Every structure is written in C-alpha cells, then in structure tokens.
C-alpha cells in the first residue's frame, strides 16, 4: 500500500450524520430534490429514531476517524414514536457535557432538529457544521492512534 | 465500637433463634486488622467470628444479588451510606425486599491503613434510607469536607483538562474493580464482558480505548450512581473516578432538578424521564440556549 503524503492538501473532514428516518433523512431527500447542496464530506447513516443513537456510536465514530458527528432528529413533540427525541435531548446534553469535561472540543458534536419539510435547514446546517469542523481541524484526541495517517 | 459489635452479635443471634433469618451477610476478620472482609455466615456458631469495627468500609448490598436465589431471609449489615446502594438495587429489581432483613449499623467514619476513607469525607449523613432494625449508638458520621478537585478542573482550559484526564485514565489497568464493586453496575451481561462490543475486558491497546471505558461506564451509571465513592476507593491506580460521576450528577441536577439516586426506590432517574420543557442543546453549546439554525 502506498502511503499518501497529505501534508499540503486541504483538510477534508469526515463528518458523520445520524439522521432519523422519519424527518431528517427525508429532509436530506428534499434538500436533494430541491437541488440545494450539502458538502460531500457529510456521510449519512439512517436510524429509526434519534433515540436509537447510543452514545457509544458517536464515540466509536470518532475513534474510527470521524472529525465531527451530528445527530439530526424530529423537532421535540414531533417524534414518530412520540417521545424518543426527548430522551435523546437529555442523553446527548449529558454526553456533550462529559466530552467537554474531558477536554474534547464540544463543537465536534451537534444535535439538530430537522423535519422532513426542512430541506433548506438540512443543507444550511450541514454546511455550517462542516465549516466549523474545517476550522477546528482534524480530530486527534479521540482517534484510534492506529488509524492515524 | 466493641460494645456495638457485641450488640450486633446478640441481635444476630436473636434473629437467628427466632427463625427470622437463616444466613448473615457481614464482616469477618481479614488478613490484617485493617481489612475486615465481607463474609456470609451460614451457621449460628460462626456468628462469634463476626466483626464490626472502623474497617468495615465496603458496601455489602451488592452481595445480596446472589443471595436472592436461595431460600429464606438473609440478614445484612448496612451502614447509612450503604442503604443508598441497596435502594438502587431494589429499584432496578435486582433484589427482593421480602428476602432481606436489614440491620442498620451506626458508623463514625471508616478507615483503612492510611486513615479516614476518602468517601467518608462526603458522607450523606446518619439517616438510614432502608432498614428493619437499627442498632442505636451515639456514633456520628464525619462532617463533609469538600474535595476542591472539582473546582480545580472546572477552572482549567480544555487542553489542560484533556491532559489531566489523559494522565489519569492512562493509568487504568482495566482490572474492572470499579465496575465490580459498583452497586449501579449490576447488569447480568455487562457490555465490557461482551467481546463483540469492542471494549471488552482488556488493557487498552490504544489511547482512545482508555477514555472509552470510563466515558461509557460513567454514562451507564449516570442517574443511577449514588456517589457512594466505592469505585474511587477500590481503584488500585487511584484514579479519581468520583470526578466523572459527580460531574454527571451536577449537570443533571442543574438541568433537570436535584435528584439523589438511592434515596427513594420509587423515584425515577432523570435519564428515564423527560419534560417537554427541558433545555435545548444549543448549537452554541451554551447551557439552555436555543438552537440557532
Ligand atoms: S460512586 Fe462509583 S461505585 Fe458508587 S454508584 Fe457511583 S459509579 Fe458506582
Ligand atoms: S458498565 Fe454498564 S453494562 Fe457494565 S455493569 Fe456497569 S452499567 Fe452495566
Ligand atoms: S478500578 Fe481503576 S484501574 Fe481498575 S478498571 Fe477501574 S479505573 Fe481502571
């Protein structure tokens, strides 16, 4: 395997977006069909509910080389399963506090509520988040050192 | 202390003779004077080996889980702080209240060979949150002394905190003692025993692994951790695990109202509940802000 020299290339972050099947994933679809763009750095993983996302998923993503992880779900009150996103809200607030406490940049994680009708919000959110991560630079603190380039 | 030990023995014998209980979970003398060891007494004669002194720091409530499979009632000695762990196990249906007789034993602060235990500096008080009978005495628990470590950490910059935790967590040898002693960690199949989880029992193979174990465990016990301090006490590497747990407790209290796990077995933990009016996680990451996009 050839080892690439990345040193003088522009930093292209790897961003993972967990999107709820019932809202944000459809929001991404709408963004696509209304031809508003979002960065190619964003990789979407569809989940049945934002509440399905175990904090370990986020940590694992960082370990495997993600530079930012965003979690997108239905607006509070609109959860397909009635209450899932309320639990997400408490859980993720706490996880972010913990990451902050451990000295890991909190800006690398985000939760947004994006409905199926908010294609534009989907694309602005993803653009803004990608921009934030680009400014932060690569995630070095949480990465599995064996995966480091 | 000796008089208390005698009273405890007498009470145990009486309850045994009355047929109330058929085994006793307590302490016996360990290898050294300063390590009273948890022990299960299965005969009346053995009760004479029971000890209760200022070296009985451990919490016996988690041993009760195993006792639930057996016939008859078990008597357990619990100090005031131990009753929180007991209630936590009760609320998670890990033990059956009907099969336990709690003998509340007074405490004046517990010690090891180095002096007063660290956990006793943040004692929750003399009250028993569960008991069937209490041994009366004029002993009183030590007054709380704030550790000051929390403030120090809160004042640090993110980089300093990262360096601090790196230094602490990299000492971890993954002995799992913190998990094994914890009354909130009573899962039948722990994620750290599951090979497929990728974070199974093993010493860390890379830097991140060290963080992961501690983040996950602190998160699993969030809302259930009684801040009993047992994890920090047993850690052979002296990692200040209480700092992680207290941070979680502090954040939950601030956002969702004060909650003390183990105080009342009927109460619901903050992470199994929600309010529609809960604060948003803001894009600016300020507490309680509203999402900006
Ligand atoms: S202080 Fe430690 S041992 Fe005690 S309940 Fe909390 S995590 Fe478990
Ligand atoms: S670490 Fe988590 S899975 Fe393991 S026993 Fe504790 S709470 Fe259960
Ligand atoms: S007791 Fe200490 S050394 Fe052992 S696994 Fe827990 S933190 Fe690591």
TrEMBL record, chain A:
Keywords: Iron, Iron-sulfur, Metal-binding, Oxidoreductase. One of its GO terms (molecular function) is oxidoreductase activity. It holds the Pfam family FlpD. Residues 15-137 form the F420-non-reducing hydrogenase iron-sulfur subunit D domain. The keyword Transcription regulation does not apply. InterPro entries: MvhD/FlpD. This is Heterodisulfide reductase subunit MvhD.
């Amino acid at each position: 395997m050839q080892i690439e020299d990345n040193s003088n290339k522009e930093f292209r972050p790897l961003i993972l977006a967990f999107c709820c099947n019932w809202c944000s994933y459809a929001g991404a679809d709408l963004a696509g069909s209304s031809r508003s763009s979002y960065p190619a750095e964003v990789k979407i993983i569809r989940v049945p509910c934002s509440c399905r996302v175990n904090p370990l998923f986020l940590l694992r993503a960082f370990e495997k080389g993600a530079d930012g992880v965003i979690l997108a779900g239905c607006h509070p009150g609109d959860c397909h399963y009635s209450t899932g996103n309320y639990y997400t809200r408490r859980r993720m607030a706490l996880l972010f506090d913990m990451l902050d406490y451990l000295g890991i940049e909190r800006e690398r994680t985000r939760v947004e509520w994006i409905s199926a009708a908010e294609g534009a919000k989907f694309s602005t959110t993803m653009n803004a988040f990608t921009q934030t991560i680009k400014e932060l630079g690569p995630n070095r603190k949480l990465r599995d050192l064996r995966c480091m380039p | 202390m000796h008089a208390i030990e005698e009273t405890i023995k007498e009470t145990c014998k009486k309850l045994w003779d009355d047929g109330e209980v058929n085994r006793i979970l307590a302490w016996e003398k360990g290898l050294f004077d300063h390590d009273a060891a948890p022990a299960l007494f299965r005969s009346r004669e053995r009760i004479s080996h029971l000890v209760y002194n200022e070296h009985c720091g451990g919490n016996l409530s988690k041993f009760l889980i195993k006792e639930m499979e057996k016939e008859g009632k078990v008597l357990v000695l619990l100090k005031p702080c131990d009753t929180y762990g007991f209630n936590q196990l009760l609320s998670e249906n890990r033990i059956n209240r009907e099969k336990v007789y709690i003998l509340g034993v007074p405490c004046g602060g517990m010690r090891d060979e180095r002096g007063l235990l660290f956990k006793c500096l943040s004692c929750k008080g003399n009250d028993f949150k569960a008991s069937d009978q209490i041994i009366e005495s004029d002993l009183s628990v030590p007054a709380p002394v704030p550790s000051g470590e929390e403030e120090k950490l809160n004042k640090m910059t993110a980089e300093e905190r990262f360096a601090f935790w790196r230094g602490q967590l990299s000492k971890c040898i993954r002995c799992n003692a913190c998990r094994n002693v914890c009354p909130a960690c009573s899962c039948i199949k722990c994620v750290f025993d599951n090979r497929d989880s990728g974070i199974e029992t093993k010493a860390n193979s890379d830097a991140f692994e060290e963080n992961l174990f501690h983040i996950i465990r602190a998160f699993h016990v969030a809302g259930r951790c009684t801040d009993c301090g047992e994890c920090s006490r047993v850690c052979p590497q002296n990692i200040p695990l209480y700092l992680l747990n207290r941070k979680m407790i502090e954040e939950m209290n601030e956002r969702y109202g004060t909650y003390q796990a183990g105080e009342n077995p009927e109460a619901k933990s903050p992470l199994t509940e929600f309010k529609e009016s809960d604060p948003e996680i803001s894009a600016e990451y300020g507490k309680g802000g509203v999402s900006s996009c």
